[in-house]
């Protein structure tokens, strides 16, 4: 019935019918996909507008000044059609085909509510939503600023059993109002004719994320996505994968862990993940391939492969807060954020100065809202913030140590969150990755002292009712000065870490921790396992006066970790292991 609606009926549906149910919205979207439309993008902060439509199978895309008179824009459309006809005739003549006689120029007019729009009207006023563009015998309903995908991409790596998450950005709409249809390539064979869809594609899903099965191995995938804003929809975007679905690695180190996290937590619980995901900028070096991880098969170090594993691992934890270290800048924007957005997370990123990787913190948007960010580079804060004056004086007394500290781009990412259904509950989430060198214990002690002082300032000055949650790769074992400082509250000048790099950098001092913190996941035997080293380097520190551990998700077994000798491997994407725990309000 909708195919036979008049233009007036279409405008009535478009502008006056309330979309009260999802079913009606789907009907309207299916209806508009069949209509001829002229899409006009016109925003006040730009000087130009664009007019796009399809004529005789050819895409017309015009860029015009918003202040230009309508008549000039319509003349430009008519002239472009004449030029197109001229090129077609020239092509026929060169091919020896007969050409038609000169065709009259197509009449180009714009109407609104059945009335002719004056040609001296400026473009920004003339091209109204619901107007009708006449180009000869063709008619186009004008859609001004309809929902439109500005980015729509599918990942290159497709593994059976692993989520395929498209990268999508929509203008004038919202991803939650978009519609999705997944198709898989139909395989020909005996008895398959009834299952094969149109043009060899079989519909396979209607969610934003699609998980292919072993039956899809060797097949390409196609996604048709329709942008929407809850009331209207834009033009479909069709995406086809460049490659085919490949077999997954089988059992992964995180599969058994997911049995403990298969449900989202309740309102009184916070599931926290801290994970160094191994930056691609480090994984692809010759040192990594030949010295650090020679046991890892080369394809398992490739970014696309590891990202498939990471996205499945993180989505399966159903976390509320995720703190990641060694996040490549492009991985954050092109891979992790599109995937985690589809699973209900918002995220923030802080890159290290003069580096290609940094820190990211994600939080479940249905539970938390981001109040503020207070990110700093630790070496810069040490020299610029007066609260570190005493510490800076001591560091200045040893030029060798100061130089080592100032060379580091180590960053502290600080995000203050509050509960959506209880705004009195606030969490200051800190995320960091301290200096890595085995003999850099003294540098890490200075870095941690700066971080703790900085966090104290944020909380006491701005959020005195917030509880601290401090996550990261601290590159410090339980016997280290950093761990003792955080967990015991004070570190004396006699601790051996002050002389960790020899007498030239010796700068003993007593430092203290203004917070009461404990390790939510205890002291595992290791959170980092490579060929030449294994040990506990990662922690989730919390305030036991405010939160208590409801559940610590068991780490993979030693057998799982060493099946391929060490990490990373075909079944584990990083050289670190994610820490996961459920914290409950006291």
Automatic annotation (TrEMBL):
It comes from the Eukaryota. Keywords: Exonuclease, Hydrolase, Magnesium, Metal-binding, Mitochondrion, mRNA processing, Nuclease, Phosphoprotein, Transit peptide. InterPro entries: CCR4/nocturin_mRNA_transcr (IPR050410), Endo/exonu/phosph_ase_sf (IPR036691), Endo/exonuclease/phosphatase (IPR005135), PDE12-like_N (IPR048821). GO terms for cellular component: mitochondrial matrix. It is found in: Mitochondrion matrix. One of its GO terms (biological process) is nuclear-transcribed mRNA catabolic process, deadenylation-dependent decay. Its main location: mitochondrion. SUPFAM superfamilies: DNase I-like. Coiled coil: none annotated. Gene3D superfamilies: Endonuclease/exonuclease/phosphatase. Residues 146-246 form the 2',5'-phosphodiesterase 12-like N-terminal domain. Residues 274-576 form the Endonuclease/exonuclease/phosphatase domain. One of its GO terms (molecular function) is poly(A)-specific ribonuclease activity. Its cofactor is Mg(2+). Belongs to the CCR4/nocturin family. This is 2',5'-phosphodiesterase 12. It comes from Salvelinus namaycush (Lake trout). The gene is pde12.
């Amino acid at each position: 019935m909708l195919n036979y609606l008049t233009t007036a009926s279409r405008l009535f549906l478009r502008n006056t019918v309330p979309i009260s149910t999802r079913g009606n919205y789907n009907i309207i979207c299916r209806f508009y996909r069949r209509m001829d439309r002229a899409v006009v993008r016109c925003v006040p902060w730009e000087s130009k507008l664009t007019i796009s439509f399809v004529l005789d199978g050819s895409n017309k895309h015009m860029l015009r000044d918003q202040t230009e008179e309508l008549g000039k824009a319509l003349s430009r459309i008519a002239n472009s059609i004449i030029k197109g006809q001229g090129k077609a005739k020239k092509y026929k003549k060169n091919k020896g085909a007969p050409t038609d006689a000169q065709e009259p120029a197509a009449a180009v007019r714009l109407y609104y509510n059945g009335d002719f729009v004056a040609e001296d009207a400026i473009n920004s006023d003339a091209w109204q939503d619901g107007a009708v563009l006449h180009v000869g015998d063709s008619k186009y309903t004008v859609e001004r600023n309809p929902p439109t995908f500005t980015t729509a991409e599918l990942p290159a790596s497709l593994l059976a059993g692993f989520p395929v998450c498209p990268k999508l950005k929509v203008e004038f709409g919202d991803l939650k109002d978009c519609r999705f249809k997944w198709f898989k390539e139909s395989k020909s064979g005996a008895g398959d004719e009834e299952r094969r869809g149109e043009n060899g594609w079989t519909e396979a899903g209607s969610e934003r994320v699609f998980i292919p099965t072993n039956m899809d191995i060797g097949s390409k995938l196609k996604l048709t996505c329709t942008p929407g804003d809850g009331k209207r929809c834009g033009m479909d975007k069709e995406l086809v994968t460049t490659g085919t679905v490949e077999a997954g690695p089988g059992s992964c180190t995180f599969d058994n862990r997911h049995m403990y996290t298969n449900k989202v937590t309740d309102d009184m619980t916070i599931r926290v993940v801290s994970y160094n995901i191994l930056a691609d900028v480090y994984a692809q070096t010759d040192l990594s391939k030949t010295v650090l991880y020679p046991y890892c098969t080369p394809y398992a170090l490739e970014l696309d492969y590891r990202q498939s594993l990471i996205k499945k691992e993180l989505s399966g934890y159903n976390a509320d807060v995720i703190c990641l270290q060694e996040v490549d800048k492009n991985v954050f924007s092109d891979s992790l954020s599109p995937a985690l957005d589809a699973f209900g997370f918002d995220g923030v990123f802080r890159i290290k100065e003069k580096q290609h990787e940094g820190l990211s913190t994600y939080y479940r948007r249905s539970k938390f809202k981001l109040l503020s960010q207070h990110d700093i580079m630790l070496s810069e804060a040490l020299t610029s913030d007066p609260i570190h004056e005493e510490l800076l004086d001591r560091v200045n007394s040893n030029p060798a140590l100061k130089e080592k500290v100032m060379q580091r781009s180590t960053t502290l990412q600080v995000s203050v969150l509050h509960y959506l259904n209880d705004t009195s509950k606030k969490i200051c989430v800190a995320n960091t990755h301290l200096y890595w060198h085995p003999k850099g214990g003294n540098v890490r002690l200075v870095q941690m002292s700066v971080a703790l002082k900085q966090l104290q300032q944020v909380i006491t000055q701005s959020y005195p009712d917030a509880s601290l949650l401090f996550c990261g790769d601290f590159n410090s074992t339980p016997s280290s000065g950093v761990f003792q400082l955080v967990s015991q509250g004070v570190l004396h000048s006699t601790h051996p870490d002050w002389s960790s790099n020899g007498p030239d950098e010796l700068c003993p001092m007593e430092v203290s921790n203004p917070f009461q913190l404990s390790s939510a996941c205890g002291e595992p035997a290791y959170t980092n396992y490579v060929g030449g080293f294994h040990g506990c380097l990662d922690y989730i520190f919390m305030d036991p006066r405010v939160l208590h551990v409801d559940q610590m998700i068991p780490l993979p077994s030693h057998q799982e970790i060493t099946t391929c000798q060490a990490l990373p491997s075909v079944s584990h994407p990083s050289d670190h292991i994610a820490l996961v725990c459920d914290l409950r309000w006291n």
